[in-house]
Design goal:
Length: about 240
């Protein structure tokens, strides 16, 4: 175990933990938008910046990436940190003025109307990359990616059409913190809507109860991964038990 200080409190941690992990474990609030325990941290939103002092050197670091270390002194709520976070929240608000998540975060940080120009009133994507990371790291498909640079940066699938690699699992929609990606199951079709495209997938119908219960493509993928017959997934879970 190691000992570090967060906001004047001595706390214990394991060496492989990040500063954010340790702060959360000790009920110390640090705002975040781009972390999810199912994927590796990436450090894209920068909301989790803290001041880290080691010896005589103090730096602003992303706490979701920064490793806890013995003797480290962390400040999560200094004036400098608050000012940086408010600036980031203001930029996010200008990027996604309608996002409930961003508005709540900005509100919590005391940010009102952003001073920056709003380019797209309806944009909900904060470019956190959680969707692309879950698709790559958890589903192992890499069906979507972040493309382009600067103001053109966006989440995209190849040619903005139904992606062959996408298995319709909807993991991207589940992890999206701002509902920029949504999923709807209706009338035997799963629809996944992204900022610049919409994909539709046929659902499998249970022969016993008639429920549409999972996308055919996802079931085929699961059978292949598990090396079992697709027949195993013919009935829905309720009718199987
Ligand atoms: S939570 Fe650390 S950079 Fe987003």
């Amino acid at each position: 175990m190691i000992t570090l200080t967060i906001d004047g409190r001595k706390v214990q941690a394991e060496e492989r933990q990040t500063v954010l992990d340790v702060a959360r474990q000790n009920n110390i609030y640090i705002p975040t938008l781009c972390v999810n325990e199912s994927v590796q941290p990436y450090g894209s939103c920068r909301l989790c910046l803290v001041e880290a002092t080691r010896g005589k050197r103090t730096r602003l670091v992303a706490s979701c990436l920064y490793p806890a270390a013995d003797g480290l002194d962390i400040k999560t709520d200094s004036e400098k940190i608050s000012a940086v976070r408010r600036m980031i929240a203001e930029l996010l608000l200008a990027r996604c003025p309608q996002s409930a998540e961003v508005k709540a975060l900005a509100d919590k940080l005391g940010v009102g109307q952003p001073r920056f120009k709003v380019e797209d009133e309806d944009n909900l994507c904060v470019l956190c990359g959680l969707c692309t990371r879950v698709c790559e790291e958890v589903v192992d498909q890499s069906a979507i990616s972040l493309v382009n640079r600067g103001t053109q940066r966006e989440v995209s699938i190849p040619f903005n059409e139904n992606s062959d690699a996408c298995i319709a699992c909807g993991s991207c929609a589940y992890v999206c913190p701002t509902e920029a990606i949504t999923l709807e199951d209706a009338g035997g079709t799963r629809t996944i809507t992204m900022p610049n495209c919409r994909m539709e997938f046929k659902m499998s119908q249970c022969p016993d109860c008639g429920d549409y219960w999972a996308p055919e493509k996802q079931l085929k993928w699961m059978a292949e991964k598990a090396n079992i017959s697709p027949e195993v997934f013919s009935l829905c879970p309720d009718c199987r038990s």
